[in-house]
Each structure stands twice: as C-alpha cells, then as structure tokens.
Amino acid sequence: MRGSAIARELRRVDAWVQIGRVVLIVLAASAAATQIMAARYPGTAKDPSLWPGAAVLTGVVLIVATAAESVWGLFRVRHRGRSEANALQIEKQLVSVLVQVAKEAHIDVDVAGCNVWRIYTPRHGAPALHRVGHRRLSDYPPMSDRAWTKGKGVIGRCWDSGQTRFWDFTALQEKMKNKTELSEAAWRAMKPADRWGFDRDEYLDAIRKYQQVLAVPIVDSQGQVLGCISIDIPSDRPAANPRCLDTPEVRGVLATAAETVRGLISSPRL
User: Fold this and answer.
1) pLDDT digits over 145-157, tens only?
2) Which ranges does the record mark as transmembrane (predicted)?
3) How far is it between the farthest Cα atoms of the chain?
4) Domain housing 49
C-alpha cells in the first residue's frame, strides 16, 4: 500500500538503519582518535592523562554498539526471511483458492481475484487492513490503493462483524451508471450504513469495479478476528450468475483457506 502506514514503517526502519551506521562510523573514528592521543600522551603517575581512560571508554562503547547493531541486523534478516517464506505459502494457497472457486462457480480461472488481509495498527493512527497476499491470474483490474478501515466495504464489514460477508453490486451498477446519477445532496441523504464507509467518489468507483465480493474472517483459536480472506469478480468480466460466489461450496473453500493462512499472517511491524 503506497503511502500507507506500512510504507511509513518501512521508511522509519530504513532511516534508523542509516542513523545506526553513521553512529558506528563516528564511534570508530572517535575510538581511533583517542587511541592515537593515548599513545602520544600516556601520562605518568605524577602527571596522569585522561586519554588512556578515554581510549578504553570509547573502545568499550564501540564494541557494545557494534554488537547491538549486529543483533538488530540478525533479527531483521531472520524476520524478513520468515516473512518471505510465509508470503510464498500464502501465494500457493491463493492460487489453490482461485482454481477451486473457478470450478465451483463455473468461471474461468483468470477471472476472480483473491486477497489475504491482516489487521494492522500503526504507531500513530487507526487500525486498518493490510494486504499480505494477492493473486489474480490476469492483469486487470489492478489492486486498489485505498485504506480499508473497520466497516469500510465488504472486507471492512467482515472485520467489523467477524462474520462472512457477500455483496452483489449488479443492481447498484444499473442504478448509478454515472456520477451525475448520485448528486451530493442525494449522497448526504443516504443512510450511513448504505455508504459502506466510503466517501461519494470511493463509493461510485467501488460499486463499478466489482460485480460481486465475498469476504471470510480469519480468526484465532479464541475467536478474535485477525483479518480476512476475500475473493471478487470484476464488473468488466461478470459471471453469468451474479451470486455465484455466495454458495456453501465457495464459502467453504475460503473458510478452509482462512484456517490455513491464519498462522502465516504475522504482524507486518518490523
């Protein structure tokens, strides 16, 4: 998610890495300088010098700082390695979902798109759904770049309720073929529940982009919602049956996948 809390977190970590490297360079230069001064001005019992003590102190600080940076670097490498392995397993699971859903819904395998979402809470901001996996066997439509908060859209309502949510947008698409058919006054008059957490432009874009969307929650062993897995059919390649995703078979495929990936969606905080 470009410009999202995740992107800001990555930039923050990169900034701290750069600062840490600069600090190590400064400490190394300081340690070298104090060693030179300690050798030049060692002092005597009658006339002690501060330089030998300073050389020892800067040397110890440099060793501790180097060790700390190395431990942090090892943690980052292991964490990212584990994240990459989990991402590969999620990718395989999403491909499996697309194949099974295509069979159950009687659609081409490259029509639907599948996503795995995890609830992410930034340091300064509201919780949102972070996309940890995406698979569509075609190039269109592209992934959305909006922030998905609690109650927003089908996936936001899935998170909010902790229940499976489905929506068929066909009727709304027929009703609102262009933006002029939903004036600002009409938008303000709509009930908040009917807005799906969107602003007017987001709402019109969302209902035109997809024919139907199904979202199933991902929950832990205590029933707490961790995120959700969603599947959609785009409006430019609509299925003959506008509710083909809303079947026990398709819901079962996503529920099984949700159970499989729940242990793979570790926190995106680095």
Assistant:
1) 788 999 999 999 9
2) 54-75
3) 98
4) 5-76
